[in-house]
C-alpha cells in the first residue's frame, strides 16, 4: 500500500492526511470546496511547524512528508491511483452513499475503502459498493496527530485480508489499533456518548457548573479532558447526531439531553463556531 486518498478536508480529514503523509504514504486530500481545502493546507502547515518546534519530527522529515502530500478537488481522477481511500465527510448516510458509489466506479479492483465514521455501519456502507469485502471502518480520534488509537471495525462481509492491510496501514501511521466487530457505536463512541450526554443532563439539573463537572471527571476519573471540553472539541452537533443515531438503534439510554439540543439549535457548536459550552471568542480576545 503506497497511495492513500483522503476525502473531506474538515478537522478529521486534514489530520488523517497529515499522519498519512508523515507515515510515508503518497497522500492526496480531496474536497469539493476549494476554500476549505486551502484552509486545510494552512492548518496542516501549522501542524508540521509545531511538530518540528516540539521535536516530534525533524525539518527534513517535514519537508519529505510535505512532498508526499497534495491537494485536489478532483475525486475520480485521484481515486484511480489509490490503494486505500479514507472517507472523512459528515455523518450523513446519503453523503457517504454518494461518495462510495462514485469511488467504487473509478477505483482499482484491489483498492480498499475505509470510512472514518464513529457510529455508522460499515456493513451498510459496504452495500453501496460492489466490493463489500474491502470496506471497513477506520475510526480515528480528534486530534488525530496526538491521539494514539485507531478503532478498526469489521463489517459483516469485511475480509481478514482487508483487516490485516488496514491494521498495517494504521501502524505505519504511528497508531495503536483495536479490531472489533460492528455494533452501533462501536466501543469508544458508545461510552463517550453516554458520558457526554449525562454531563448535559447534570448541567440541565443544576448539579454543577461546566467547569466543576469537567474538573470532577478529569481529576476523579483520570480523563484527559472533561466531557464538555471534549464535546466542544469534536462539535456539539456531531455529538448530537451520534446520540440520535444511537438512540434510534440502542434505545432510551441514549436519548439526547434537551439542553444539548438547545445548544445546537442556538448555533453553539463548540470550538468551530467560537462558542459551545464554553465561549472561545472571549478567550481569543484575552
From TrEMBL:
<dbReference type="InterPro" id="IPR022694">
    <property type="entry name" value="3-OHacyl-CoA_DH"/>
</dbReference>
<feature type="domain" description="3-hydroxyacyl-CoA dehydrogenase C-terminal">
    <location>
        <begin position="185"/>
        <end position="280"/>
    </location>
</feature>
<feature type="domain" description="3-hydroxyacyl-CoA dehydrogenase NAD binding">
    <location>
        <begin position="4"/>
        <end position="182"/>
    </location>
</feature>
<dbReference type="GO" id="GO:0008691">
    <property type="term" value="F:3-hydroxybutyryl-CoA dehydrogenase activity"/>
</dbReference>
<comment type="pathway">
    <text>Lipid metabolism; butanoate metabolism.</text>
</comment>
<protein>
    <submittedName>
        <fullName>3-hydroxybutyryl-CoA dehydrogenase</fullName>
        <ecNumber>1.1.1.157</ecNumber>
    </submittedName>
</protein>
<dbReference type="Pfam" id="PF00725">
    <property type="entry name" value="3HCDH"/>
</dbReference>
<dbReference type="InterPro" id="IPR006108">
    <property type="entry name" value="3HC_DH_C"/>
</dbReference>
<dbReference type="InterPro" id="IPR006176">
    <property type="entry name" value="3-OHacyl-CoA_DH_NAD-bd"/>
</dbReference>
<dbReference type="InterPro" id="IPR008927">
    <property type="entry name" value="6-PGluconate_DH-like_C_sf"/>
</dbReference>
<dbReference type="InterPro" id="IPR013328">
    <property type="entry name" value="6PGD_dom2"/>
</dbReference>
<comment type="similarity">
    <text>Belongs to the 3-hydroxyacyl-CoA dehydrogenase family.</text>
</comment>
<dbReference type="Pfam" id="PF02737">
    <property type="entry name" value="3HCDH_N"/>
</dbReference>
<keyword id="KW-0560">Oxidoreductase</keyword>
<dbReference type="InterPro" id="IPR036291">
    <property type="entry name" value="NAD(P)-bd_dom_sf"/>
</dbReference>
Amino acid at each position: 500500500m503506497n497511495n492513500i486518498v483522503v476525502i473531506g478536508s474538515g478537522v478529521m480529514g486534514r489530520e488523517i492526511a497529515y499522519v498519512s503523509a508523515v507515515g510515508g504514504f503518497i497522500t492526496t486530500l480531496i474536497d469539493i470546496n476549494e476554500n476549505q481545502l486551502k484552509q486545510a493546507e494552512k492548518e496542516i502547515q501549522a501542524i508540521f511547524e509545531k511538530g518540528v518546534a516540539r521535536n516530534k519530527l525533524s525539518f527534513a522529515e517535514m519537508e519529505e512528508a510535505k512532498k508526499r502530500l497534495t491537494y485536489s478537488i478532483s475525486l475520480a481522477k485521484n481515486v484511480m491511483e489509490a490503494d486505500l481511500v479514507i472517507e472523512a465527510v459528515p455523518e450523513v448516510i446519503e453523503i457517504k452513499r454518494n461518495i462510495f458509489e462514485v469511488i467504487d466506479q473509478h477505483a482499482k479492483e484491489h483498492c480498499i475503502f475505509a470510512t472514518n465514521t464513529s457510529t455508522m455501519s460499515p456493513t451498510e456502507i459496504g452495500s453501496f459498493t460492489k466490493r463489500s469485502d474491502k470496506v471497513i471502518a477506520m475510526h480515528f480520534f480528534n486530534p488525530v496527530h496526538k491521539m494514539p488509537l485507531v478503532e478498526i471495525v469489521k463489517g459483516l462481509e469485511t475480509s481478514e485480508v482487508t483487516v490485516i492491510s488496514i491494521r498495517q496501514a494504521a501502524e505505519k501511521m504511528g497508531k495503536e489499533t483495536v479490531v472489533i466487530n460492528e455494533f452501533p457505536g462501536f466501543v469508544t463512541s458508545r461510552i463517550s456518548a453516554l458520558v457526554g450526554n449525562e454531563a448535559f443532563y447534570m448541567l440541565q439539573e443544576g448539579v454543577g457548573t461546566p467547569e466543576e463537572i469537567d474538573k470532577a471527571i478529569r481529576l476523579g476519573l483520570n480523563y484527559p479532558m472533561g466531557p464538555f471540553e471534549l464535546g466542544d472539541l469534536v462539535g456539539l452537533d456531531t455529538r448530537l447526531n451520534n446520540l440520535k443515531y444511537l438512540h434510534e438503534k440502542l434505545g432510551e439510554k441514549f436519548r439526547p439531553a434537551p439542553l444539548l439540543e438547545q445548544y445546537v439549535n442556538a448555533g453553539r457548536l463548540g470550538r468551530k463556531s467560537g462558542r459551545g459550552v464554553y465561549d472561545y471568542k472571549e478567550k481569543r480576545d484575552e
